[in-house]
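As noted in the main text, all predictions were made from sequence alone. Below is one such record, for adenine phosphoribosyltransferase.
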Amino acid sequence: MLPDLTSIGFNFQAMGSISIAHNITTIGAQQQHKVTKPLASAAAQFPVSRTTSFITLSSSFASSLSQFQTTCKEAKHQLYCLPTSEEGEEEKMGSKEGTDHRIARISSAIRVIPNFPKPGILFQDITTLLLDPKAFKDTIDLFVERYKDKEISVVAGIEARGFIFGPPIALAIGAKFVPMRKPKKLPGEVISEEYSLEYGTDKIEMHVGAVEPGERALIIDDLIATGGTLCAAIRLLERVGVKVVECACVIELPELEGRKRLGDKPLFVLVEAADQI
Ligand SMILES: O=P(O)(O)OC[C@H]1O[C@H](OP(=O)(O)OP(=O)(O)O)[C@H](O)[C@@H]1O
Ligand SMILES: Nc1ncnc2[nH]cnc12
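Prediction:
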């Protein structure tokens, strides 16, 4: 059953607050994210569970309703709604409210494609986030705001999607960018680490000499699933004496418990994907 989003939006505005929740059992595959707890005042107001998803009631959401209808799938989710501010009004950089709006926009710009690349995988597609320059910029800004004063000299980006988010962050915080690539892509001498994935195994490599012992690194990727990729990246950097200050991803798949695999290495994410079933 498809919810009446127009009326939710109306009630929402009338209440002038975000403290409204609707039990809705149908959710579009495109809106299956929730805002992570440290960043969301909304999350603080609601008992956020794994089966909670946020959507943004915006004109872009409304216009994607027909697509929403075609991609709808049965899922036992509770749907919480965050209001969007008017264009231009949400630049309260650094304020909690401004941050929440940015996170909500980022979350709703990520598309979820079921059964890609294999049956049973809910693929978190960040290419739609890149189509929204505001959401893309907000993504980079949130990372830059967090890391600009942490004396990071290396941003290590993981192939392929870490190459999209890593370089603008590196430039903004005055750090070098080091690509961590799939096997046989780097032309120089490399060191490598193997890892297992949600769907297979792989290896990452880094150029010898790209980093110096004692440097402080931030590792960037689009997503953490099992955490195997990030663990391999951490091992690779630590082998050559680099301190990994933190790992950062746009999306976390919490049910795969990759965060646990990282042990005490800090992980910062912007949105958590709803359950992968
Ligand atoms: O936490 P994990 O279970 O290790 O999985 C996360 C990794 O999986 C995806 O990349 P993928 O291996 O699909 O490679 P690609 O970006 O080159 O397509 C994603 O971009 C991460 O790098
Ligand atoms: N569900 C998923 N979506 C996108 N990238 C992934 N990498 C591993 N699992 C993924």
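Residues 158-161, 197-198, 202, 221-229, 258 surround PRP (ligand 1) (CB under 6 Å). Residues 124 and 186 are 27 Å apart (CA to CA). These features were considered when defining construct boundaries for the mutagenesis experiments described in Section 2.9.
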